[in-house]
Amino acid sequence: MTKWDGGGKEAEMPMTVVRCTQAASNKVALCQKNAFDNAGAEMLGYEKDLMQKCIDAFGKAGGRPGAVPPKPGG
Fold it and tell me: b or e along 32-54 (b: 16 or more beta carbons within 10 Å of the residue's beta carbon)?
């Protein structure tokens, strides 16, 4: 989240979209939102772990592969 808040959103967004798309489950997205909404400061640096826990718990096997979206304006 530090990278995200510090202006790294543009670099992190494509991979975030890919990871969410690959999970092929609304439950994954809800889990991730809940995890981020309730994570304390001690979880800084563990964002990818939180996301993966939700994918492992609620992701559908055989989800479609994600695609990196084009950069805005490019």
Answer: beebeeeeeeeeeeebeebbeeb
Length of the chain measured in residues = 74
Which one, of 19, 45, 15, lies nearest residue 32 by Cα?
19
**Residue extents of the structural domains in the chain:** 25-59
* Residue bearing tokens 């959103």: 9
pLDDT tens-digit map of 12-67: 677 777 766 667 778 888 898 898 889 888 988 888 888 888 888 888 765 444 44
Cα(67)–Cα(74) distance, integer angstroms: 16
Task: Identify which of 74, 70, 60 has the alpha carbon closest to the alpha carbon of residue 29.
Answer: 60
